[in-house]
Amino acid sequence: MSKPIGWTARSHSQNPRRRGERGRVAAQEPVMYQPDELLNPADLLKRFSVCAQRLIAELPEKDQPRQAEITAALRQGVLDAFRTREEHLARLVESDVEARGSGKRMSTLKWQVSVRKSLLGLGVRVVEAPDEQELFVVVEGDGDAFEVIRPAYVDQATGKLILSGQLRRVPAPARAGEAGQEGEA
């Protein structure tokens, strides 16, 4: 299966193994999805319909299905594919959340890295900085600054939020100038 346009794998090494390193492979950069355009069910349906019409035109007239049957089958196929993708990404996100926040269960570094690489490879952006507050829900705390409790997960291919992140309000860090003035007073 070939990768869609916009997928890149960056590997700078020809031979990742070195002498004496049996079974260990040097870490490669994860596959990143960089969409040129967002996936849209309506646009995909249009493109599939054009291809289907061209293929059906090649059939003998007695064997050609009706337009309504073709459109219904294509629409259902596109919607099923999007639903399946959303479910798959949601399960991977659940695995990532579990691997990173479960104490000792499944929290080995290898497991965390493999789940995160899978998410990145499928086009999920993991937002671990509180800069994009629209992707987060504030769940507790007091103060003017924010701390990330759980990252937000965004499907880059569709632009949809898979799982909102959680933020905790914390006191704003004192600035260098303010700290010096307090000590002098």
What are the SSEs and their pairings?
Layout: E1 7-8, E2 32-33, H1 41-57, H2 67-101, H3 109-121, E3 124-127, E4 136-141, E5 145-150, E6 152-155, E7 161-163, E8 165-170, H4 176-184
Parallel strand pairs: 4-8
Antiparallel strand pairs: 1-2, 3-6, 5-8, 6-7
Helix pairs in contact: 1-2, 2-3
Output the keywords:
185 residues; 4 helices; three-stranded antiparallel β-sheet; elongated; 40% helix; alpha+beta; three-stranded mixed β-sheet; 8 strands
Task: Report a brief summary of the structure.
The chain has helices spanning 41-57, 67-101, 109-121, 176-184; strands spanning 7-8, 32-33, 124-127, 136-141, 145-150, 152-155, 161-163, 165-170. The protein is of the alpha+beta class and 185 residues long. Helix 2 packs antiparallel against helix 3 (109-121).
> Roughly how many Å is the radius of gyration?
24 Å
Largest sheet: 3 strands, antiparallel
Oligomer: single chain
Low-confidence stretches: 24-30
Q: What gap, in angstroms, lies between the N and C termini?
A: 69 Å
Q: What is the structural class?
A: alpha+beta
Strand content: 15-25%
Q: What is the number of helices?
A: 4
Query: What series of H and E elements makes up the topology?
Result: EEHHHEEEEEEH
Q: How many β-strand stretches?
A: 8
Q: What is the helix fraction of residues, given as a range?
A: 40-55%
Note the overall shape. Answer: elongated
What would the average pLDDT be, to the nearest integer? Answer: 77
Strand neighbour order, sheet with most strands:
3-6-7
